[in-house]
Amino acid sequence: MGLYGSPSLEDENNNDKKTPTSSKFIYCYNCGFQYSKKLKKCPNCGKKPIKKFYNRGWFWFLIFVVIVIFLLSNSDKLIDTTNMLSDTYGSNKISPEEYKEQCDEVPYEDLARTPNEFKNKDIKFTGEVFQIEENNRHVTLLINVTPSIFGIYVDTIYIDYIRTDSDEKRILEGDLVTVYGKSNGIMTYTSILDKQISVPHVIAKFIDLN
After folding, report:
1. 105 and 115 in contact (C-beta within 8 Å)?
2. Nearest to 127 by CA among 105, 112, 110
3. What is the pTM assigned to this prediction?
């Protein structure tokens, strides 16, 4: 070994001695001198090694702050959605048929233009599923509810739904369905084109395949 824990030229030409493992040594970014990681600075030029950004305390502190801000900014929405998903049919238990009967049809334009007016109201609508995401029993759907003159459904509603049991029939893209549930204001999601889109949000209690 040379001075300051660095390998000497003798060691490089000595076949009887093992070359020190690179994991124990670093190269100085300023002069290129190789020295032991145990040293706090380069013994040749005096420069301290540059720490990788993910090894610095401020980096992980910044990550922590970002996560906290995200959770706080979405906590109300998460709590609201979780409470509504865990709810049954209100404080008074009623049958699925009775619940469906009490749901009102609301024009899409009214639901999209004045969402707070219908928040927590029981509503129903029929439409075509064009996107679906499943996570165990929790299902997220995007449904277009207004048929156009060309036979294509438009006007999107964002649906959160929990299946009643694991044997319930799966909903597929292209299915025509009738949804019964509570209006929950507006939901903003990111499209496949990385565009932010805000649409009416409904917590579905029942979804019937047509």
Report:
1. no
2. 105
3. 0.59
Report the 10 Å Cβ neighbour count for 141: 24
Is the pLDDT assigned to residue 25 strictly greater than 70? yes
Angstrom distance (rounded) from CA 151 to CA 99: 30
Report CA torsion sign: 70, 81, 192, 134: positive
Greater pLDDT, 21 or 68: 68
Please list the alpha-helical segments (H only) found in 89-156: 96-102, 108-113
Asked whether the predicted pLDDT for residue 17 surpasses 60, the reply is no
pLDDT of 7 above 70 = no
Distance, CA of 1 to chain centre:
52
Structural domains of the chain sorted by starting position, each given as residue range(s) with its CATH number in brackets: 3-50 (no CATH), 87-209 (2.40.50.140)
Dihedral angle of Cα 163, 167, 171, 172, to the nearest 10 degrees: 140
| Structure confidence by residue, pLDDT tens digits, 54-76 | 556 667 778 888 887 777 665 55
Structure tokens at 10: 């003798």
**What residues contact residue 135 under an 8 Å CB cut-off, 6+ apart?**
none
